[in-house]
Amino acid sequence: MKKTKVGILGIGAIGSVILTGLCKNEHLELHHFNRSKKEMTMVQFHDSFYTISLDIKQDIYIPLKLDWLIICLKEHQFEEAKNLFQKLISRKTKIAIIRNGIELKEPLLPFTKEDHILECMINCPTQPDKNQVYQQMGNAIITSAQMDLANDFQNLFKNKDFLFRQVEDLKTESWKKLLESASLGAITCLTGETCWIFKDEKMKNLYQKLLEEGIQVAKAAGAVIPFDFVNAMLEKLQAYSKEKGSSMLTDRKLGRPIELGAKNGAIVSVGKKYNIETPLNELVVTLLSKTNAKNI
Ligand SMILES: NC(=O)c1ccc[n+]([C@@H]2O[C@H](COP(=O)([O-])OP(=O)(O)OC[C@H]3O[C@@H](n4cnc5c(N)ncnc54)[C@H](OP(=O)(O)O)[C@@H]3O)[C@@H](O)[C@H]2O)c1
User: Which of 53, 70, 126, 244 is the most core-located residue (most Cβ within 10 A)?
Assistant: First the structure.
């Protein structure tokens, strides 16, 4: 039986978790692509420890004619990866993009047809420990729109630890996640503090204002944000442990570029498109872009 050729582009935290879901499927021929050469990647999730050998290809001279390309890059890494898209995507290649943010298809549209691209949101906190083992803190939950392409994608996985959700309105789901993560991320990242900071009423008010500013943009872009969304987010905030951080805070602490273009930067740029002012998010982008510039 002919194997399905699957490429994974970006073998960091999420790319490695995705590999744990694919490596048990013997009907797949896996191809690894990453900026740096690595011999292996390791993932720990509860009692399961995965050591996955890698054969990273960096120079691609002959078309691989992949059936699937799964892209696990951060938003700011797409520009540099463009030359690879050209080499890895053929007319038949289906693409799954797994990353934070909105309008995920956009950077891929010059390379393929829109209906070949599956946008995926992933919920799966994963960070490398001091031994470079990726510590996966929960089941991987992958959310996409309801479509045949999503069923095909799901069928690649043979690991019961993966949960798949197909939703009717992915745009709204993505905006809700973005509103929360950009607002919470901005405050934790700028203060350098975890969620204990929201015991302070001023911080809670700022969180609310950031949410409200983003909601105007989300609605203009067509997301259906319920009238009680802000209250629900404030209640959720109360329930967070005081140690909870955010990916923006983690990136800053580790000296890595912050995914601004997928967070507050996305709110600012969509706001501009619809003539909606976003002064708070602009301030966040201005301040944090200096941190990014230093790290890059
Ligand atoms: N980690 C999480 O907990 C988590 C949770 C939910 C969502 N997400 C989202 O998932 C996406 C991926 O995040 P991540 O945490 O997996 O990032 P990551 O650990 O930084 O992994 C990115 C990988 O892409 C590689 N890469 C970068 N530029 C490249 C290029 N031009 N060509 C080939 N490979 C390239 C990097 O290679 P190097 O080895 O050279 O750096 C790295 O291995 C992001 O949008 C993130 O927000 C992450």
Answer: 70
